[in-house]
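I would like you to sit down with the record closing this message with an eye to the fold:
=====
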Amino acid sequence: MYLIKVPSASDKLVKLFYLDRLFVPSKITIVPDQLTSRFIHSDWNMHRSLDITQPGNDKTHMKKSSKNTKHKRMYRILLPAILIVCTLLVLTLQECRPLIPPMDDTYIHLVFGRSLFSGSPLSFNQGEISSGFTSPLWLLPSALASTGGTEAAPAVLMGFSLIAAALALLAAGPWAGLLLLMTGPFFFHASSGMETALASLFVIVLWKSIRDETMLGLRPFILAGAFLCRPELAILAVPLIMAMPGRSVRNILILLAPSFVVGILWIIWNLHAAGLLLPSTFYAKQSVNWFSSASSGLPGLLKNLLLVSPLLIFAAVASIIGLFRTAPSELRRKNIALGSFPILLFATSLLLQPNSFFQMRYYVPTLTATVLVAGYWLSGLQRKKLNTLLLAASMLPGLLIFGERRAEASCDVGAIDVDPADYLSDIATDTETVASADIGAVKWITNIHILDLDGLVTPERLPGEDTEDWYWIELNADYLLAFPGQYSNLVSEAGESIEFLAGFGSRSNVICGEDSVTLWRIF
Protein backbone atom coordinates (compact mmCIF):
# COMPACT_ATOMS: atom_id res chain seq x y z
CA MET A 1 0.00 0.00 0.00
CA TYR A 2 1.05 3.60 -0.53
CA LEU A 3 0.40 6.96 0.98
CA ILE A 4 -0.18 9.99 -1.21
CA LYS A 5 1.79 13.04 -0.22
CA VAL A 6 0.81 16.50 -1.45
CA PRO A 7 3.53 19.17 -1.63
CA SER A 8 2.33 22.06 0.48
CA ALA A 9 3.48 24.31 3.31
CA SER A 10 2.25 21.89 5.95
CA ASP A 11 3.11 18.79 3.89
CA LYS A 12 0.09 16.98 5.32
CA LEU A 13 -0.90 13.52 4.21
CA VAL A 14 -4.09 13.21 2.22
CA LYS A 15 -6.44 10.85 4.07
CA LEU A 16 -9.85 11.57 2.54
CA PHE A 17 -10.98 10.67 -0.92
CA TYR A 18 -14.18 10.35 -2.90
CA LEU A 19 -15.12 6.75 -3.46
CA ASP A 20 -14.79 5.81 -7.16
CA ARG A 21 -13.85 9.42 -7.91
CA LEU A 22 -10.21 9.64 -6.80
CA PHE A 23 -8.80 12.69 -8.51
CA VAL A 24 -5.00 12.61 -8.71
CA PRO A 25 -3.45 16.00 -9.62
CA SER A 26 -0.18 15.97 -11.52
CA LYS A 27 1.79 17.49 -8.62
CA ILE A 28 1.24 14.76 -6.06
CA THR A 29 3.78 12.06 -5.30
CA ILE A 30 3.19 8.49 -4.20
CA VAL A 31 5.45 7.13 -1.49
CA PRO A 32 5.48 3.65 0.14
CA ASP A 33 4.33 3.28 3.70
CA GLN A 34 4.56 0.11 5.79
CA LEU A 35 2.22 1.18 8.57
CA THR A 36 -0.84 2.20 6.62
CA SER A 37 -2.91 -0.57 5.02
CA ARG A 38 -5.95 1.39 3.92
CA PHE A 39 -7.32 4.84 3.24
CA ILE A 40 -10.44 6.15 4.89
CA HIS A 41 -12.90 7.44 2.35
CA SER A 42 -14.36 10.89 2.99
CA ASP A 43 -17.83 9.44 2.99
CA TRP A 44 -18.45 8.51 6.64
CA ASN A 45 -19.30 4.89 6.08
CA MET A 46 -17.08 3.78 3.24
CA HIS A 47 -14.07 2.33 5.02
CA ARG A 48 -12.72 0.64 1.94
CA SER A 49 -9.20 -0.23 0.89
CA LEU A 50 -7.71 1.92 -1.83
CA ASP A 51 -5.40 -0.41 -3.73
CA ILE A 52 -2.77 1.41 -5.78
CA THR A 53 -0.79 -1.06 -7.82
CA GLN A 54 2.95 -0.75 -8.14
CA PRO A 55 4.51 -0.12 -11.55
CA GLY A 56 4.50 -3.24 -13.64
CA ASN A 57 1.48 -4.77 -11.94
CA ASP A 58 -1.16 -3.24 -14.23
CA LYS A 59 -1.95 -6.57 -15.91
CA THR A 60 -2.49 -8.31 -12.57
CA HIS A 61 -4.76 -5.48 -11.43
CA MET A 62 -6.75 -5.61 -14.67
CA LYS A 63 -7.20 -9.38 -14.38
CA LYS A 64 -8.42 -9.03 -10.79
CA SER A 65 -10.79 -6.24 -11.80
CA SER A 66 -12.13 -8.30 -14.72
CA LYS A 67 -12.69 -11.26 -12.40
CA ASN A 68 -14.58 -9.12 -9.89
CA THR A 69 -16.74 -7.71 -12.68
CA LYS A 70 -17.65 -11.22 -13.84
CA HIS A 71 -18.56 -12.20 -10.29
CA LYS A 72 -20.80 -9.13 -9.90
CA ARG A 73 -22.56 -9.93 -13.17
CA MET A 74 -23.07 -13.52 -12.04
CA TYR A 75 -24.53 -12.41 -8.70
CA ARG A 76 -26.85 -9.92 -10.37
CA ILE A 77 -28.19 -12.58 -12.72
CA LEU A 78 -28.39 -15.13 -9.92
CA LEU A 79 -30.71 -13.06 -7.69
CA PRO A 80 -33.53 -12.62 -10.26
CA ALA A 81 -33.18 -16.29 -11.15
CA ILE A 82 -33.61 -17.29 -7.50
CA LEU A 83 -36.63 -15.00 -7.21
CA ILE A 84 -38.30 -16.52 -10.26
CA VAL A 85 -37.59 -20.11 -9.22
CA CYS A 86 -38.80 -19.57 -5.63
CA THR A 87 -41.94 -17.79 -6.81
CA LEU A 88 -42.76 -20.60 -9.24
CA LEU A 89 -42.26 -23.12 -6.44
CA VAL A 90 -44.62 -21.20 -4.15
CA LEU A 91 -47.23 -20.99 -6.92
CA THR A 92 -47.01 -24.59 -8.07
CA LEU A 93 -46.71 -26.26 -4.66
CA GLN A 94 -49.74 -24.54 -3.16
CA GLU A 95 -52.93 -26.58 -3.01
CA CYS A 96 -55.22 -24.02 -4.64
CA ARG A 97 -55.14 -22.94 -8.29
CA PRO A 98 -51.75 -21.32 -9.14
CA LEU A 99 -53.14 -18.77 -11.61
CA ILE A 100 -54.96 -16.85 -8.87
CA PRO A 101 -53.18 -13.69 -7.69
CA PRO A 102 -52.99 -12.84 -3.98
CA MET A 103 -55.03 -9.63 -4.34
CA ASP A 104 -58.49 -8.94 -5.70
CA ASP A 105 -57.10 -5.56 -6.80
CA THR A 106 -55.16 -7.38 -9.54
CA TYR A 107 -58.47 -8.13 -11.24
CA ILE A 108 -59.49 -4.47 -10.88
CA HIS A 109 -56.39 -3.48 -12.85
CA LEU A 110 -57.25 -6.05 -15.49
CA VAL A 111 -60.76 -4.64 -15.86
CA PHE A 112 -59.46 -1.10 -16.33
CA GLY A 113 -56.77 -2.41 -18.66
CA ARG A 114 -59.37 -4.22 -20.75
CA SER A 115 -61.36 -1.00 -21.00
CA LEU A 116 -58.49 0.66 -22.90
CA PHE A 117 -59.29 -1.60 -25.84
CA SER A 118 -63.04 -0.92 -25.63
CA GLY A 119 -65.16 1.96 -26.78
CA SER A 120 -65.30 3.28 -23.21
CA PRO A 121 -61.71 3.57 -21.91
CA LEU A 122 -60.98 4.10 -18.22
CA SER A 123 -64.34 2.71 -17.21
CA PHE A 124 -65.11 -0.14 -14.85
CA ASN A 125 -68.72 -0.60 -15.88
CA GLN A 126 -69.24 -0.27 -19.60
CA GLY A 127 -70.12 3.31 -20.50
CA GLU A 128 -69.44 4.68 -16.98
CA ILE A 129 -66.11 6.49 -16.69
CA SER A 130 -64.35 6.04 -13.36
CA SER A 131 -61.49 7.40 -11.28
CA GLY A 132 -61.14 4.17 -9.31
CA PHE A 133 -57.46 3.51 -10.05
CA THR A 134 -54.35 4.84 -8.30
CA SER A 135 -51.68 3.59 -10.70
CA PRO A 136 -52.24 4.91 -14.23
CA LEU A 137 -48.88 3.57 -15.34
CA TRP A 138 -49.77 0.01 -14.36
CA LEU A 139 -52.79 0.15 -16.64
CA LEU A 140 -50.46 -0.38 -19.61
CA PRO A 141 -49.21 -3.86 -18.62
CA SER A 142 -52.73 -4.59 -17.37
CA ALA A 143 -54.10 -3.81 -20.83
CA LEU A 144 -51.54 -6.10 -22.47
CA ALA A 145 -52.26 -8.88 -19.98
CA SER A 146 -56.03 -8.56 -20.53
CA THR A 147 -55.59 -9.75 -24.11
CA GLY A 148 -54.64 -13.17 -22.73
CA GLY A 149 -58.25 -14.01 -21.94
CA THR A 150 -60.22 -14.54 -18.76
CA GLU A 151 -58.21 -17.51 -17.47
CA ALA A 152 -54.66 -16.61 -18.51
CA ALA A 153 -54.66 -12.81 -18.01
CA PRO A 154 -54.08 -12.88 -14.21
CA ALA A 155 -51.02 -15.10 -14.66
CA VAL A 156 -49.69 -12.82 -17.41
CA LEU A 157 -50.06 -9.74 -15.20
CA MET A 158 -48.41 -11.60 -12.34
CA GLY A 159 -45.57 -12.33 -14.75
CA PHE A 160 -45.21 -8.61 -15.51
CA SER A 161 -44.90 -7.78 -11.82
CA LEU A 162 -42.33 -10.57 -11.47
CA ILE A 163 -40.30 -9.03 -14.31
CA ALA A 164 -40.44 -5.64 -12.53
CA ALA A 165 -39.21 -7.33 -9.33
CA ALA A 166 -36.34 -9.01 -11.21
CA LEU A 167 -35.33 -5.65 -12.71
CA ALA A 168 -35.41 -4.12 -9.23
CA LEU A 169 -32.98 -6.78 -8.01
CA LEU A 170 -30.69 -6.12 -10.97
CA ALA A 171 -30.77 -2.37 -10.36
CA ALA A 172 -30.11 -2.73 -6.62
CA GLY A 173 -26.80 -4.50 -7.17
CA PRO A 174 -25.53 -7.82 -5.80
CA TRP A 175 -25.48 -7.11 -2.05
CA ALA A 176 -28.39 -4.72 -1.66
CA GLY A 177 -30.23 -6.98 -4.12
CA LEU A 178 -29.64 -9.95 -1.83
CA LEU A 179 -31.20 -8.09 1.08
CA LEU A 180 -34.14 -7.01 -1.09
CA LEU A 181 -34.68 -10.60 -2.21
CA MET A 182 -34.84 -11.66 1.45
CA THR A 183 -37.39 -8.97 2.31
CA GLY A 184 -40.64 -10.84 2.95
CA PRO A 185 -43.20 -8.23 1.76
CA PHE A 186 -41.18 -7.63 -1.43
CA PHE A 187 -41.23 -11.36 -2.17
CA PHE A 188 -44.95 -11.49 -1.34
CA HIS A 189 -45.79 -8.82 -3.92
CA ALA A 190 -43.15 -9.73 -6.51
CA SER A 191 -45.74 -11.76 -8.42
CA SER A 192 -48.92 -10.16 -7.11
CA GLY A 193 -49.88 -8.63 -10.42
CA MET A 194 -49.80 -5.22 -8.73
CA GLU A 195 -47.59 -2.19 -9.32
CA THR A 196 -45.70 -2.73 -6.05
CA ALA A 197 -42.50 -4.15 -7.56
CA LEU A 198 -42.45 -1.43 -10.22
CA ALA A 199 -42.65 1.18 -7.44
CA SER A 200 -39.62 -0.45 -5.80
CA LEU A 201 -37.75 -0.22 -9.09
CA PHE A 202 -38.44 3.52 -9.30
CA VAL A 203 -37.19 3.98 -5.72
CA ILE A 204 -33.95 2.15 -6.53
CA VAL A 205 -33.31 4.07 -9.75
CA LEU A 206 -33.87 7.48 -8.11
CA TRP A 207 -31.79 6.58 -5.05
CA LYS A 208 -28.87 5.39 -7.17
CA SER A 209 -29.11 8.43 -9.43
CA ILE A 210 -28.43 10.58 -6.36
CA ARG A 211 -25.72 8.31 -4.99
CA ASP A 212 -23.86 8.09 -8.30
CA GLU A 213 -24.82 11.59 -9.49
CA THR A 214 -26.12 10.23 -12.79
CA MET A 215 -29.19 10.60 -15.04
CA LEU A 216 -29.58 14.30 -14.21
CA GLY A 217 -31.45 14.98 -17.44
CA LEU A 218 -33.76 11.98 -16.98
CA ARG A 219 -34.71 12.61 -13.36
CA PRO A 220 -37.79 14.76 -14.17
CA PHE A 221 -39.27 11.97 -16.29
CA ILE A 222 -38.31 9.19 -13.87
CA LEU A 223 -39.96 11.15 -11.06
CA ALA A 224 -43.11 11.59 -13.18
CA GLY A 225 -43.12 7.85 -13.90
CA ALA A 226 -42.81 7.09 -10.19
CA PHE A 227 -45.71 9.45 -9.47
CA LEU A 228 -47.90 7.69 -12.05
CA CYS A 229 -46.91 4.32 -10.59
CA ARG A 230 -47.75 5.25 -6.99
CA PRO A 231 -48.90 8.83 -6.23
CA GLU A 232 -47.12 8.91 -2.85
CA LEU A 233 -43.76 8.49 -4.60
CA ALA A 234 -44.04 12.17 -5.51
CA ILE A 235 -42.48 12.77 -2.08
CA LEU A 236 -39.16 11.70 -3.62
CA ALA A 237 -38.99 15.12 -5.24
CA VAL A 238 -37.75 16.38 -1.87
CA PRO A 239 -34.45 14.42 -1.79
CA LEU A 240 -33.96 15.02 -5.51
CA ILE A 241 -34.16 18.77 -4.93
CA MET A 242 -31.98 18.47 -1.84
CA ALA A 243 -29.18 16.72 -3.76
CA MET A 244 -29.53 18.80 -6.91
CA PRO A 245 -26.20 20.20 -8.15
CA GLY A 246 -26.41 23.88 -9.03
CA ARG A 247 -29.78 24.14 -7.32
CA SER A 248 -31.85 27.02 -8.60
CA VAL A 249 -35.49 27.88 -9.11
CA ARG A 250 -35.14 27.10 -12.81
CA ASN A 251 -33.67 23.64 -12.18
CA ILE A 252 -36.32 22.85 -9.58
CA LEU A 253 -39.10 23.83 -11.99
CA ILE A 254 -37.54 21.65 -14.70
CA LEU A 255 -37.45 18.71 -12.29
CA LEU A 256 -41.09 19.12 -11.23
CA ALA A 257 -42.58 20.11 -14.60
CA PRO A 258 -43.44 16.61 -15.97
CA SER A 259 -44.96 15.50 -12.65
CA PHE A 260 -46.93 18.74 -12.42
CA VAL A 261 -48.33 18.28 -15.95
CA VAL A 262 -49.43 14.66 -15.44
CA GLY A 263 -50.78 15.58 -12.00
CA ILE A 264 -52.97 18.33 -13.44
CA LEU A 265 -54.25 15.97 -16.14
CA TRP A 266 -55.04 13.37 -13.51
CA ILE A 267 -56.93 15.90 -11.37
CA ILE A 268 -58.93 17.01 -14.41
CA TRP A 269 -59.87 13.40 -15.09
CA ASN A 270 -60.90 12.79 -11.47
CA LEU A 271 -63.11 15.88 -11.52
CA HIS A 272 -64.62 14.81 -14.81
CA ALA A 273 -65.24 11.21 -13.74
CA ALA A 274 -66.33 11.57 -10.11
CA GLY A 275 -66.31 15.27 -9.22
CA LEU A 276 -63.39 14.71 -6.83
CA LEU A 277 -59.84 16.05 -6.85
CA LEU A 278 -58.28 12.70 -5.98
CA PRO A 279 -59.12 9.17 -7.17
CA SER A 280 -62.24 7.79 -5.53
CA THR A 281 -60.12 4.94 -4.14
CA PHE A 282 -58.40 7.45 -1.84
CA TYR A 283 -61.67 8.56 -0.26
CA ALA A 284 -62.92 4.97 0.07
CA LYS A 285 -59.75 3.79 1.84
CA GLN A 286 -59.62 6.81 4.12
CA SER A 287 -63.15 6.28 5.41
CA VAL A 288 -61.97 5.48 8.93
CA ASN A 289 -60.60 8.18 11.21
CA TRP A 290 -56.77 8.11 11.05
CA PHE A 291 -56.33 7.85 14.81
CA SER A 292 -58.82 4.99 15.02
CA SER A 293 -57.09 3.21 12.18
CA ALA A 294 -53.68 3.79 13.76
CA SER A 295 -54.74 2.57 17.20
CA SER A 296 -56.01 -0.69 15.74
CA GLY A 297 -53.39 -1.09 13.03
CA LEU A 298 -50.06 0.06 14.47
CA PRO A 299 -49.46 -3.07 16.61
CA GLY A 300 -49.81 -5.27 13.54
CA LEU A 301 -47.66 -2.91 11.48
CA LEU A 302 -44.89 -2.93 14.10
CA LYS A 303 -45.07 -6.71 14.33
CA ASN A 304 -44.68 -7.10 10.57
CA LEU A 305 -41.81 -4.62 10.40
CA LEU A 306 -39.95 -6.52 13.11
CA LEU A 307 -40.82 -9.77 11.39
CA VAL A 308 -38.97 -8.62 8.27
CA SER A 309 -35.81 -8.32 10.40
CA PRO A 310 -34.92 -6.25 13.47
CA LEU A 311 -31.29 -6.23 12.28
CA LEU A 312 -32.31 -4.60 9.00
CA ILE A 313 -33.96 -1.76 10.89
CA PHE A 314 -30.87 -1.39 13.10
CA ALA A 315 -28.55 -1.27 10.06
CA ALA A 316 -30.78 1.29 8.35
CA VAL A 317 -30.94 3.52 11.43
CA ALA A 318 -27.15 3.33 11.82
CA SER A 319 -26.75 4.25 8.16
CA ILE A 320 -29.17 7.17 8.35
CA ILE A 321 -27.46 8.58 11.45
CA GLY A 322 -24.09 8.31 9.78
CA LEU A 323 -25.31 9.90 6.58
CA PHE A 324 -26.81 12.82 8.48
CA ARG A 325 -23.56 13.33 10.42
CA THR A 326 -21.35 13.56 7.35
CA ALA A 327 -18.63 16.13 7.97
CA PRO A 328 -17.48 17.30 4.51
CA SER A 329 -19.86 19.99 3.32
CA GLU A 330 -19.62 18.84 -0.30
CA LEU A 331 -21.12 15.49 0.68
CA ARG A 332 -23.66 16.66 3.22
CA ARG A 333 -26.49 17.47 0.82
CA LYS A 334 -26.19 14.22 -1.08
CA ASN A 335 -25.92 12.03 2.00
CA ILE A 336 -28.83 13.70 3.76
CA ALA A 337 -30.87 13.20 0.60
CA LEU A 338 -29.96 9.49 0.53
CA GLY A 339 -30.77 9.04 4.20
CA SER A 340 -34.11 10.80 3.86
CA PHE A 341 -35.53 8.24 1.39
CA PRO A 342 -36.78 5.68 3.94
CA ILE A 343 -37.87 8.41 6.37
CA LEU A 344 -40.01 10.27 3.84
CA LEU A 345 -41.49 7.10 2.34
CA PHE A 346 -42.34 5.67 5.76
CA ALA A 347 -43.94 8.92 6.92
CA THR A 348 -46.06 9.07 3.75
CA SER A 349 -47.12 5.42 4.02
CA LEU A 350 -47.96 5.82 7.69
CA LEU A 351 -50.08 8.87 6.90
CA LEU A 352 -52.02 7.03 4.21
CA GLN A 353 -52.21 3.54 5.73
CA PRO A 354 -51.23 3.31 9.44
CA ASN A 355 -51.67 -0.45 9.44
CA SER A 356 -50.35 -3.66 7.89
CA PHE A 357 -53.39 -4.41 5.73
CA PHE A 358 -52.78 -5.86 2.24
CA GLN A 359 -49.65 -7.61 3.54
CA MET A 360 -47.49 -4.47 3.79
CA ARG A 361 -48.21 -3.45 0.21
CA TYR A 362 -47.91 0.27 0.95
CA TYR A 363 -44.66 -0.23 2.87
CA VAL A 364 -42.70 -2.16 0.23
CA PRO A 365 -41.18 1.04 -1.28
CA THR A 366 -40.16 2.06 2.25
CA LEU A 367 -38.57 -1.32 2.87
CA THR A 368 -36.78 -1.05 -0.47
CA ALA A 369 -35.25 2.28 0.57
CA THR A 370 -34.40 0.74 3.96
CA VAL A 371 -32.49 -2.05 2.22
CA LEU A 372 -30.60 0.49 0.09
CA VAL A 373 -29.38 2.57 3.03
CA ALA A 374 -28.58 -0.56 5.06
CA GLY A 375 -26.54 -1.91 2.17
CA TYR A 376 -24.77 1.45 1.93
CA TRP A 377 -23.71 1.11 5.56
CA LEU A 378 -22.68 -2.54 5.24
CA SER A 379 -20.52 -1.81 2.21
CA GLY A 380 -18.35 0.39 4.40
CA LEU A 381 -17.58 -2.30 6.96
CA GLN A 382 -14.39 -4.37 6.83
CA ARG A 383 -16.25 -7.69 6.51
CA LYS A 384 -18.86 -6.48 4.08
CA LYS A 385 -19.74 -9.86 2.61
CA LEU A 386 -19.92 -11.67 5.93
CA ASN A 387 -22.05 -8.97 7.58
CA THR A 388 -24.38 -8.83 4.60
CA LEU A 389 -24.82 -12.60 4.65
CA LEU A 390 -25.51 -12.54 8.39
CA LEU A 391 -28.14 -9.84 7.92
CA ALA A 392 -29.67 -11.78 5.03
CA ALA A 393 -29.76 -14.92 7.22
CA SER A 394 -31.61 -12.98 9.94
CA MET A 395 -34.29 -12.17 7.37
CA LEU A 396 -34.89 -15.81 6.42
CA PRO A 397 -37.65 -16.51 9.02
CA GLY A 398 -39.63 -13.48 7.87
CA LEU A 399 -39.17 -14.49 4.23
CA LEU A 400 -40.52 -17.97 4.92
CA ILE A 401 -43.52 -16.58 6.79
CA PHE A 402 -44.39 -14.10 4.04
CA GLY A 403 -43.81 -16.80 1.43
CA GLU A 404 -46.35 -18.99 3.20
CA ARG A 405 -48.74 -16.05 3.37
CA ARG A 406 -48.27 -15.57 -0.38
CA ALA A 407 -49.61 -19.07 -1.05
CA GLU A 408 -52.41 -18.69 1.52
CA ALA A 409 -53.42 -15.34 0.04
CA SER A 410 -54.05 -16.93 -3.36
CA CYS A 411 -56.15 -19.62 -1.69
CA ASP A 412 -58.05 -16.92 0.20
CA VAL A 413 -58.78 -14.84 -2.90
CA GLY A 414 -59.70 -17.99 -4.80
CA ALA A 415 -62.25 -19.02 -2.18
CA ILE A 416 -63.70 -15.61 -1.33
CA ASP A 417 -63.53 -13.79 -4.68
CA VAL A 418 -63.03 -16.16 -7.62
CA ASP A 419 -65.38 -18.97 -6.56
CA PRO A 420 -68.33 -16.61 -5.95
CA ALA A 421 -67.62 -14.96 -9.30
CA ASP A 422 -67.67 -18.33 -11.06
CA TYR A 423 -70.94 -19.22 -9.35
CA LEU A 424 -72.47 -15.86 -10.21
CA SER A 425 -71.43 -16.16 -13.86
CA ASP A 426 -73.48 -19.37 -14.09
CA ILE A 427 -76.71 -17.90 -12.70
CA ALA A 428 -76.66 -14.20 -13.66
CA THR A 429 -77.41 -12.65 -17.04
CA ASP A 430 -75.56 -9.81 -18.76
CA THR A 431 -78.41 -7.41 -18.02
CA GLU A 432 -78.34 -7.97 -14.25
CA THR A 433 -76.40 -6.07 -11.56
CA VAL A 434 -74.57 -7.21 -8.43
CA ALA A 435 -73.82 -5.04 -5.39
CA SER A 436 -70.47 -6.34 -4.23
CA ALA A 437 -67.74 -5.63 -1.68
CA ASP A 438 -64.75 -7.16 -3.49
CA ILE A 439 -65.40 -6.13 -7.07
CA GLY A 440 -62.32 -7.18 -9.06
CA ALA A 441 -62.75 -10.90 -9.72
CA VAL A 442 -66.54 -10.55 -9.95
CA LYS A 443 -66.32 -7.97 -12.71
CA TRP A 444 -63.43 -9.62 -14.55
CA ILE A 445 -65.04 -13.06 -14.65
CA THR A 446 -68.74 -12.20 -15.04
CA ASN A 447 -68.51 -8.78 -16.77
CA ILE A 448 -71.91 -7.87 -15.35
CA HIS A 449 -72.73 -4.43 -13.97
CA ILE A 450 -71.25 -3.68 -10.53
CA LEU A 451 -72.44 -1.51 -7.66
CA ASP A 452 -69.38 -1.12 -5.45
CA LEU A 453 -70.29 -1.19 -1.75
CA ASP A 454 -66.97 0.44 -0.83
CA GLY A 455 -67.18 3.31 -3.29
CA LEU A 456 -64.03 2.49 -5.26
CA VAL A 457 -65.81 2.76 -8.61
CA THR A 458 -69.31 3.77 -7.51
CA PRO A 459 -68.99 7.25 -5.96
CA GLU A 460 -72.55 7.08 -4.61
CA ARG A 461 -71.28 4.64 -1.98
CA LEU A 462 -68.31 6.71 -0.82
CA PRO A 463 -68.41 7.10 2.98
CA GLY A 464 -70.06 10.30 4.16
CA GLU A 465 -73.37 11.97 4.81
CA ASP A 466 -74.51 11.64 1.19
CA THR A 467 -73.92 7.87 0.99
CA GLU A 468 -76.71 6.05 -0.81
CA ASP A 469 -78.44 3.60 1.54
CA TRP A 470 -80.01 0.17 1.11
CA TYR A 471 -83.03 1.58 -0.72
CA TRP A 472 -80.75 2.75 -3.56
CA ILE A 473 -79.06 -0.66 -3.71
CA GLU A 474 -82.41 -2.46 -3.72
CA LEU A 475 -83.62 -0.38 -6.65
CA ASN A 476 -80.47 -0.82 -8.74
CA ALA A 477 -79.13 -4.32 -7.98
CA ASP A 478 -80.30 -7.90 -8.45
CA TYR A 479 -77.72 -9.59 -6.21
CA LEU A 480 -75.82 -8.76 -3.03
CA LEU A 481 -72.37 -10.29 -2.56
CA ALA A 482 -70.78 -9.26 0.73
CA PHE A 483 -69.07 -10.30 3.95
CA PRO A 484 -71.89 -11.01 6.43
CA GLY A 485 -69.90 -9.68 9.39
CA GLN A 486 -68.44 -6.53 7.87
CA TYR A 487 -71.76 -5.57 6.24
CA SER A 488 -74.06 -6.83 8.99
CA ASN A 489 -75.83 -3.44 9.25
CA LEU A 490 -76.60 -3.50 5.54
CA VAL A 491 -77.88 -7.08 5.75
CA SER A 492 -80.06 -6.17 8.73
CA GLU A 493 -81.43 -3.18 6.86
CA ALA A 494 -82.26 -5.39 3.87
CA GLY A 495 -84.36 -7.70 6.07
CA GLU A 496 -86.63 -9.99 4.08
CA SER A 497 -85.90 -8.30 0.77
CA ILE A 498 -82.93 -10.61 0.21
CA GLU A 499 -82.78 -14.40 -0.16
CA PHE A 500 -79.72 -16.52 0.64
CA LEU A 501 -78.27 -18.27 -2.41
CA ALA A 502 -74.80 -19.52 -1.48
CA GLY A 503 -72.00 -19.14 1.04
CA PHE A 504 -68.28 -19.43 0.42
CA GLY A 505 -65.61 -20.04 3.04
CA SER A 506 -61.83 -19.68 3.14
CA ARG A 507 -59.47 -21.82 5.19
CA SER A 508 -56.96 -18.96 5.57
CA ASN A 509 -58.06 -15.43 6.39
CA VAL A 510 -55.04 -13.61 4.97
CA ILE A 511 -56.35 -10.90 2.64
CA CYS A 512 -60.10 -10.51 2.59
CA GLY A 513 -60.75 -9.60 6.23
CA GLU A 514 -63.26 -12.43 6.81
CA ASP A 515 -63.22 -16.15 6.18
CA SER A 516 -66.63 -16.25 4.47
CA VAL A 517 -68.71 -14.38 1.93
CA THR A 518 -72.41 -14.73 1.09
CA LEU A 519 -74.43 -14.27 -2.07
CA TRP A 520 -78.07 -13.13 -1.75
CA ARG A 521 -80.80 -12.57 -4.31
CA ILE A 522 -82.50 -9.16 -4.04
CA PHE A 523 -86.29 -9.05 -4.57
About this structure: Residues 207 and 338 are 7 Å apart (CA to CA). The first helix runs from residue 58 to 93. Confidence is low (pLDDT under 50) at residues 1-56.
